Amino acid sequence: MHLRALFAPLVLGLALAACAGPSALRPARSGDIAALRTALQDDLRAGRLTRSGVVDIAVELAEHELRSAKDSEALRLVQQVRMCARHLEAPLRERSEGTDSAAPLAALALLEVGKGDPEAWSDRATDPDPAWRAVGARTLTDIESGKHRRAAMADPDERVRLSAVRAAEDAADPADVTSLLDVARLDPDSLVRVTAVRSLGLHGSEETVLRLKDLYLSAPEPVRQEIVSAWSWPSMLEAGGKRELITVAETGKGFPAVIAGGILVRLAPDTRGYGLSALMKQFDTGTARERALAITLAPLDDDAVRKAVQKETESKDPEVRVAALSKLARDPKDGKASMDALGSIAASNTPAASRARAAMARLGDARVTTLLLRDAQSKEPTPRKDAVRGLVDLGDIARAALFLADDDAGVRMLTVCEILNASDRW
């Protein structure tokens, strides 16, 4: 008998096992984490953790945990899955139909991604419970709801005010401008102010540009950053935003100047020089985080920028050094040497090691896999979360799936969301 005939049944059996689907689906559905851990390891060895199979496991696990969580655990869980809410519409909708404090949070998570039932929830805009009132305010996205939307911007609860200014982004109603300017100037909550400024970016006019300029002079740093971004919207640029961006780039400091420089360097040929000057200035005067952002935004096709970035690869600050090496790692000329240098940092015990590992994963260098798997053995959840992100960035979804059975619920839900959001790119 030929060897081929002897091995044919074995090969066929292995192929059928791989096609049978992951055994981890059942324990994921029941929430048996110990059994899930064993099943995932078996599935990995058998080659059953295909990308589609892992997505199915992640959804089953998330659905079970969302449906079974109680009290404060339910609140934490809904908060954790907000970043992948559009992949979990069914369990979040079911959760929103409950009577506990997680219900309005689940409803709001759905509305933020354009799902849920805005018609049914619009009546909640006057609910005595501020959590549900925030849900109702988020549904006020048409012109006809303008009066109620603007009233919600002055609600005593910051959750309601935030929902109202986010609704204003969808409404794009010129009648909201005065109220949005007041919120951007006076609201005690920084996130609400920043969101109001972002909404104003849709309403380009000379008056709005100048009102934002007045606000810029006294606003805290996060609001100033958002004002710079708002000036870059097309209608704002034409109404004077371009002029204000150049002013910030030439005379400003900190992140607003870096952001302005990054916008101008890409905006048009006649603004490129202003942008380059602003970014180069940060290499000499900025903080470590400002220099790192300037490196990320600066174009390597400029000789002066290239030399400045190359110099920063010797920086004593780990954040700056990793940013510079990551920038050059994408370049055909300096890529290999820079990637090797990142690898040396990633394998070290220095404060920059975790940043370097993350950078290598984003750049697709599979040599970092061994280091990520070492992080996976950490007793602390933060390194394990970093390992999940790195494996997903590398496209190693099968190994990332093992974290769906982590002992820590926060790690499990981060893994769910990392996998589900990555599936949009497959």
Secondary structure blueprint with pairings:
Blueprint: H1 3-19, H2 25-30, H3 33-46, H4 51-68, H5 71-80, H6 89-96, H7 102-112, H8 118-121, H9 130-138, H10 146-152, H11 158-171, H12 177-186, H13 190-200, H14 206-218, H15 221-231, H16 234-251, H17 254-267, H18 269-285, H19 288-297, H20 303-312, H21 318-329, H22 335-346, H23 353-362, H24 369-375, H25 381-394, H26 397-400, H27 409-422
Model description:
The chain is 72% helix and 0% strand. Helix 18 (269-285) runs antiparallel to helix 19 (288-297) and helix 24 (369-375) runs antiparallel to helix 25. It is built from 27 helices and no strands. Residues 1-18 have low confidence and may be disordered. With 426 residues, the chain is mainly α.
Mean pLDDT: 94
Unreliable parts: 1-18
Oligomer: single chain
Q: What is the succession of H and E elements?
A: HHHHHHHHHHHHHHHHHHHHHHHHHHH
Sheet/helix structural class:
mainly alpha
| Largest β-sheet summary | none
Structural Rg = 25 Å
Summed up, the helix count is: 27
Fraction of helical residues: over 70%
- Total number of beta strands: 0
**What is the rounded distance between the termini?**
44 Å
Question: In what range is the share of β-strand residues?
Answer: under 5%
Tertiary shape: flat
